[in-house]
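Write out structure tokens for Bifunctional diguanylate cyclase/phosphodiesterase.
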Amino acid sequence: MDGRSLEQLVTDVAGRLMPADSTTSVAAATEVLRDLVEYFGVDVSFLRRNDHTIGATVLVAEWPQRQDVPDPDPLGVVYFRDADPVFAAAENAREAVIIRPEPSGYQDRIRSGAGVVETSMAAVPLLSGPVTTGVLGFIKFGDREWSTREINALNAIATLFAQLQARVAAEGRLRYLADHDELTGLSNRRMLLGELERRLQPGESGPVALLFLDVDRLKVVNDLLGHNAGDAFIHELGNRLEGRFPDDVVVRLGGDEFVIVMSEPMDANAAEVVAREAQLVASTPISLGTEEVGRSVSIGIAVAKPGECSVGELLRCADEAVLTAKSDGGNAVVVCSDEMRAANDDHAEMEMHLRAAIRDGQLEVYYQPVVDLESGAISGVEALVRWNHPVRGVLQPDSFIDIAEAANLSGELGRQVLREACRQLAQWNAMISGTPLFMCVNVSPAQLITSDFVDSVAIELETYGLSGGSLCIEITERAVMHDLAHVLVTLRGLEELGVRIALDDFGTGYSSLAQLKVLPVDTVKIDRGFVHELGVDHDDLAIVHSIVGLADSFGLDVVAEGVDSGRAAQILLDLGCRYAQGFLFSPPVKSDRIAAMLRAGRRSSPPLRVTTLTPSHP
């Protein structure tokens, strides 16, 4: 034993294991085992993990590493059902076990695996709550006694190993989920894009055939039997497709959409034959409890030669084909046509010009005032990007945002808008007195899951001398549902900067209430669809009243979008909605028009009569 105390030994082990991850865990564990062998004066140390799925204990690391390992290795994977009492005890052990030399099945296994005649052992369980996740073991060729202090130190070290194994297992789960659909276990969109990128490289075998499947009228199953039944149907359908096409890449895109990428080169005619087979697989009734449920599927087919088509173009062709199949009543197979390809070419042309526009800074930011309904003053502005297309004129975001996201351009586009919005806000605040303006900026799903997004926001705030509270990031339900786990990390990072979060288009998504409970949201923005006919449509009035009440119960601010009439503005104020934006006050305008309004005293409209007031500031 070296001169370190047991306490120092545990500290040293913690320092080695805490930084380890899935790629370095075995090497780190092996180094620690080597150190423990030397410290305790034993001959062998080993680390094993329990795989309760297969009912076995699995060797993770050992020291010294055996040179002549039998094949199969009797120490590699030991199934509890076949194990001698010592290995079997490792399945649910809760306390350290000390074994002294005596004839046993364990001694026989060690003799066959390591060639040692007589051994003593200390085995310390790795625990994670009520579950025994593994064992840390020490072997002495001959006899050895273990003191209580030594066993306590080994228990502490075993806890460190258990924490490392838990981290490795969590990382493995995250890697799996990154490429697989959680409901079905099939490949997901990420893996699909990687596979198509590889298959469409010049020189690869082709043509590459892709089948896009969309289940017809699955909503009926969800409405009548519940969403759990719908999920069970999707799960079983995924299993059937994977079973029927085991050599091909079967992907669940999400919802009721699947994609099959044929592994062998295939033309459109052959792909159509395969699509008919997929329809038969899908249409076979599936048992959901006491019900037998059958659904037809619509299938779009796209075929491309490697080197002549991008991944985005192939997917868009298939998507157009399946939309055509569904528009004809469903249960149809449609091959991407020349007309569809023409539409795809138009999309590609838009993408090309958009790339140039983003690269050359040709996109322009317009601004729409957010008005205090009580005073009529401008409290803030929302940044809204416009594209002055060389042929099509000024385009609204709806015309090109989806193209930007599909082409992975939304990140750069979003950074340009954020940078310009922050620059402009700093300039405006420098020219006004009183409470500074705030700036609302919309972000895309891609931005929210980008690892450096929070840092980029912090940089812009620092560059232009802005406080976090002067910036409001607007997100939509679609952005949140894109990847909730990563989105939460981003939003919490923004929250630490003091940046405010607004949930845009509130009331249009089925999970809006659930999101208010989970997300660090400060403001909800009432969708313009509920505001446009406010005062005419009683349903809209009821919805807006409910949203304002819900926001108030959560302590959130409310901004109404699409306010086009004085009547709607007065109703909103009476209901307790203090802030609004819309054509009543100003359409989205260039920065110089906002500057003119601010020079005129920040007045956008006359104040309204106040009957109900929410004094909070968005």
